Amino acid sequence: MTVDPRSHTPVYVQVADILRRRIESGELAPGVSLPSEARLTQEYGIGREAVRMAMSILRSEGLVSTVRGHGTRVRSSPERQRVELPAGASVVARMPTGRERNELHLDEGVPVLEIRHGKGEVEVKPGDQVELTRPTES
Amino acid sequence: MTVDPRSHTPVYVQVADILRRRIESGELAPGVSLPSEARLTQEYGIGREAVRMAMSILRSEGLVSTVRGHGTRVRSSPERQRVELPAGASVVARMPTGRERNELHLDEGVPVLEIRHGKGEVEVKPGDQVELTRPTES
DNA sequence: CCCCATTTGTCCGTATGTATC
DNA sequence: CGATACATACGGACAAATGGG
Q1: Which tens digit of pLDDT belongs to each residue from B17-68?
Q2: Conformation bin of residue A23: beta by default, left when phi > 0, alpha when psi is -120 to 50
């Protein structure tokens, strides 16, 4: 897999796509370190900026986690707690606001579930830790 | 609103925070273009890199959408279609895979709802266009 | 159609800070 | 301690896309 500088899609998006495929295919398994930024710039013949923006995309998708001084690793998907969606409620998925990310201690690239109860009451739950259920009626 | 280079919080985070507030307050309404990168570097007396990283944050939050040669606009949240979550099903929120982003034509920073029906059947819906409901039982 | 101003994309050089090993 | 690697931040330069005239 290689990068085409003349393509209409930005190089940093192409690099993110390539790495995403390598992760989703299992070639880069959870816990495995990605090549360093310097390595990737050489490997694909591109600049730092493109590599770093690609990493930024993958972090924003929750696929990888970067530790300063160490590198970037593939994240493993966490356990999910099953929570019942109350009758009369509805739910939407969206990205958290900055405030919500702090309060819920969310990593980058983790969406939230916004549960809307009856009368304007809204509850926000971390999207990577919750599975909402609607039980079969008894 | 201004930026403090000596703060512990990075300049680009500060810029993202400022722009996010201007968007959420309605000052920058959906469809409106943000100031250009050059404009923002002048306005806040910072480098272009910090500006671009701030934009990257806002894109990853689904707040804005950038087009090369044109600019960055505040995303308008489309109407959400109300869909009933079937009895016995469950749902999780996560970021889409690369394939899903293509097939569903999703922008950066848009999560998906993964609906798990009874026996391993899985359905994926764009998170910015759907509101899942559980009606009150009759 | 071309021309042009604007705007984002990309690369490079440089520098400093911080975290890991 | 040093070597490595990423984070932040500035500057310059050119390429490429957009949109208007």
Answers
A1: 999 999 999 999 999 999 999 999 999 999 999 999 999 999 999 999 999 9
A2: alpha
What lies within 8 Å, CB to CB, of A54 at 6+ separation is A12, A13, A15, A16, A19, A40
* Domains recognised in chain A with CATH numbers: 11-74 (1.10.10.10), 81-133 (no CATH)
Given the structure tokens 């039980």, which residue do they identify? A135
Q: Please state, in angstroms and rounded to a whole number, the distance separating the CA atoms of residues B29 and B24.
A: 8
CA atoms within 13 A on the CB side of A28: 17
Task: Give the nucleotide at minimum CA-to-C1' distance from B7.
Answer: D8
Neighboring chain A residues of B93 at a CB cutoff of 8 Å: 93, 111-113, 127, 130
Q: Is the pTM of this model over 0.70?
A: yes
